[in-house]
Amino acid sequence: MRIAVTGLQGQIVTALHERSSEETEILALGRPQLDLTDRDSVRAVLNDARSDVIVNAAAYTAVDKAEQEEALAMRVNGEGAGHVAEAAAALGVPLIHFSTDYVFNGSAACPYREDDPTAPLGAYGRSKLEGERRVAALCPKSAILRTAWVYSPFGVNFVRTMLRLGETREEVGVVADQLGNPTSAIDIAEATLRIAKRLCEDGAPQLRGVFHITGAGDACWADVAEAIFARAETHGRKPVRVRRIATADYPTPARRPANSRLDNTKLSQIYGVALPDWRPSLAACVDRLLVGPTDGGA
Q1: Which entry of 102, 124, 151, 271 is annotated as an active-site residue?
Q2: CATH number attached to the domain at 2-155+182-216+260-276
Q3: Quick one: pLDDT at residue 268?
Q4: Per-position DSSP letters for the chain, written without gaps between them
Q5: 226: which of 64, 151, 162, 286 is 20 to 30 A away, CA to CA?
Q6: Pairing of strands 150-151, 171-175
Q7: What confidence score (pLDDT) does residue 294 get?
Q8: What is the Cα–Cα distance from 61 to 91, expressed in whole angstroms?
C-alpha cells in the first residue's frame, strides 16, 4: 500500500514514516513542490504520486497567530483541504483528512460526539471546520479524523516544552481548567495505517465521514505536566512542581475550548480502532526523549 501524505515534518507524518513497514510505503509531499494554496500544484503532485491512499496531515497550526492571519489560515486549512479532496476524488482514491477539537466551543459538559454542533471559538477552528466541509462535499471516499492535544518525540509540542522548562525551573505554572485527551502521534500513526488499509479494501459507506481519534482518558494540562515531570524524575531529572493556574491567568490571543474531550465510540464501533490510555503512551514518549527509542515501543 502506497500512502501519499501532505506535509514533510509534522508530528503525524514523521510518526507515519516511523511506523511504516515493507508492506506500506509513505511518500511525504510538501513545499515547494506541493503547496496547499495552489490547486494546480496539489493536483499535479498527487497525480504523480500514484498512491493508493492520500492522507492530508499538512495544515496551518499556529493557533494564536491565526487570529491575525485568518485569511492565510483559511487558504491553507480550508481551501487547501478542498484542493486535496478534489485531487483525491479525481484519482478515485480514499482520503484521510485530519481535523481538530477546535471546531467545538468547549461548552459541553461531556465528551463531544461527531454529530454534536460545531461552533469554533477562533480563526484556526473556523479554518479547520471549513476544511472539513470542503472535504466532505468534494470527496465521497473520505474519512475525517478529528484529534486533539497531540504530542510526540518530534517537533514542537507540550511534552517537549515541559521537559525543556523543567531543566531550568523548579516550578511551572500550567493551566488546570481545560480538559482534553492527550494523544500520541505514534498511536495516531498506527491507527491511521489500519484505517488506510481498510479504506483501500472496503467500500462500505459507513467507513466514510467524520470520526474522533484521541487517546483514552481525560486530563487537564496540569495533570499532563505532573505526569511528565514524575516520569522525568525516574530518569534522574530534578523534581519540578506544577502550579495549577486558570486559563485567565495565562491569556492568549486565541480562546481555547474549556472542554476538548472527544468521544471515540464511533471509530471503535466502525473500524475496531481504539487508541490506548494516554498515561503509558506519554511515559513512553518521555522515556524516548530522555534515553532514546527502544525496540518495544515509542
Answers
A1: 124
A2: 3.40.50.720
A3: 98
A4: -EEEEE-SSSHHHHHHHHH--TT-EEEEE-TTT--TT-HHHHHHHHHHH--SEEEE------TTGGGT-HHHHIIIIIIHHHHHHHHHHHHT--EEEEEEGGGS-S--SSPBPTTSPP--SSHHHHHHHHHHHHHHHH-TTEEEEEE-SEE-SSSS-HHHHHHHHHTT-SEEEEE-S-EE--EEHHHHHHHHHHHHHHHHH---GGGSEEEE---BS-EEHHHHHHHHHHHHHTTTPPP-EEEEE-GGGS--SSPPPSB--B--HHHHHHH---PPBHHHHHHHHHHHHHH--BTTB-
A5: 64
A6: unpaired
A7: 52
A8: 27
- Mark residue 272 as left, alpha or beta (left: phi above 0; alpha: psi -120 to 50; beta: remaining): left
Its sign, for the CA torsion 191, 197, 200, 205, is negative
Which regions in the chain score pLDDT beneath 50?
Answer: 295-298
Contact between 191 and 213 (Cβ < 8 Å): yes
112 carries an active-site annotation: no
pTM here?
0.94
Cα–Cα dist 276/125, whole Å: 26
